[in-house]
Amino acid sequence: MEKLLYIVVGGGATLLVLMLSSAIVSRLFVARSKRKLINTISRDKLPAFSAEATRGLPAPVQRYLHAVLKDGQPALRYAVLEQRATFRHRPDSPWFRVKATEVISGMEPGWVWDAMLVHNAAWWRTANLSYVQGAAHGHIKLYGAFTLQEFEGPETDTSMLFRLLSELVWIPTAFLPTKTLRWESIDDSSARAVIMDGQTRVNAVFHFNEHNEIDRIVTSDKFRDHKSGFEQAQFTMMCSQYQEFDGVRIPTQVDFVWNLQSGDFDYGHFTLTSATYNYA
User: Fold this and answer.
1) Distances 94 to 85, 91, 97, 143, 225 between C-alpha atoms, Å
2) Residues 34-67: tens digit of each pLDDT
3) Residues with pLDDT less than 70, the chain
4) What is the count of structural domains for the chain?
5) Which one of 7, 64, 105, 130 is separated from 187 by 20 to 30 angstroms, measured CA to CA?
6) Which domain range does residue 62 map to?
7) Strand ranges, E, within 143-199
8) Whole-number Å distance between alpha carbons of 30 and 114
9) Which residues of 2-21 are buried (b: 16+ CB within 10 A; e: fewer)?
10) Domain holding 224: CATH number?
11) CB within 8 A of 101, min separation 6: which ones?
């Protein structure tokens, strides 16, 4: 009996050491991903925001940029965002809590999202999603140690590039046209943004409210992680509760909805708690 106890204790200790080692390696990987992204962001000096910079853009986009940016606003090289959220996987799934940090580029397409997903005191996971230098990757780990899912491939690239496009609401100088992003007119309250990075192309319709804020972004260029694999579906991100951070007005609440044939599936509620900017 005593020998069995030693075996059980020894086995548990070994498992704990392996878990801790794996978790440490995972954290080092995430830190490296953030450094890699920041190191690849261009250090080119860009002009400050001005009315001239918006010339030729669709009218609602011009009004939006002048509403959220001040003349003379320095270009935003990247942002570090702190977020809280609740998510669920399916309409009948329970909600779980999320605490996350995100680094997002305002120059070339790129971002890294590092999160903890808490279901209860005994069950939590970590998630790391990234889009760097034209390639997307993601993994979810139980207790930060055991890989449960990994994501990569064309569907992931497309979904993650759309996520970048939609989350430029938090770094709005990046909405100015570049070699990768352009705008197309639709009407006086909406416009289409098209972003292309390598072979990956995404477009989304941006809807603007009477306060010249983006209040809704709709795309069909996003894939849902379904039981049978990836499923392409219409997706809507709703933006609200604009606040000012370092002179930049951005939404602090975003809500995610899949517009499925069976009906709308409300699956995520994001709250932005802080935004820190690095300037170009």
Assistant:
1) 14, 8, 10, 19, 17
2) 788 888 888 888 899 999 999 999 999 999 999 9
3) 1-31, 226-229
4) 1
5) 105
6) 2-279
7) 146-151, 181-187, 190-197
8) 7
9) eeeeeeeeeeeeeeeeeeee
10) 2.50.20.10
11) 80, 81, 82, 83, 113, 114, 115
